Amino acid sequence: MQAISCLKRANYLSPFDYNTLFNLGVVHIHTQQHASAFHFLSAAINFRPNSAAAFHMLALCLKNMEDPENAIQAFDQAGQLDPSEPSVALNYAVFLNSKGDKDKSIEQLRKFQKLAEGNTALDSQLLEMASELCVRLSLSDTTNINSAHNAEQQDENPGDPEQDLV
């Protein structure tokens, strides 16, 4: 709540600041206030219509508001604006799977796998979520998601005793 209060004050002082609007949207998503998140993310997109991050957050907001048609459009727009962002593909795959569209979910999961190859900066939660989705989709190559990532980390940290925790 303190973050919302500070961001609303910043928004009062500078109502046309993209970063403040975007962050207000993200904070409202995390507090399950999806209508407010939608309001701030839409405003942020009006100021920066080429922001893949804003469309990605808007898609998650619309998903939570149970508006699948517009969520799909927002996911598609985020993917077009930044085709190299793996989290968009993975969140889209999870969303499509929840809507019963297994084929398109697998397509987005494959896109995530391609983007994840060699990317050592990926959050381990994303990799876990991708592995869980592979299991839900009954895919046999669940190890492909983690194998390239783990191999690169082992190369970077050959003597690190915690390298297997990834």
Automatic annotation (TrEMBL):
<protein>
    <submittedName>
        <fullName>Uncharacterized protein</fullName>
    </submittedName>
</protein>
<feature type="repeat" description="TPR">
    <location>
        <begin position="18"/>
        <end position="51"/>
    </location>
</feature>
<keyword id="KW-0677">Repeat</keyword>
<dbReference type="InterPro" id="IPR011990">
    <property type="entry name" value="TPR-like_helical_dom_sf"/>
</dbReference>
<feature type="repeat" description="TPR">
    <location>
        <begin position="52"/>
        <end position="85"/>
    </location>
</feature>
<comment type="similarity">
    <text>Belongs to the BBS4 family.</text>
</comment>
<keyword id="KW-0802">TPR repeat</keyword>
<dbReference type="Pfam" id="PF12895">
    <property type="entry name" value="ANAPC3"/>
</dbReference>
<dbReference type="InterPro" id="IPR019734">
    <property type="entry name" value="TPR_rpt"/>
</dbReference>
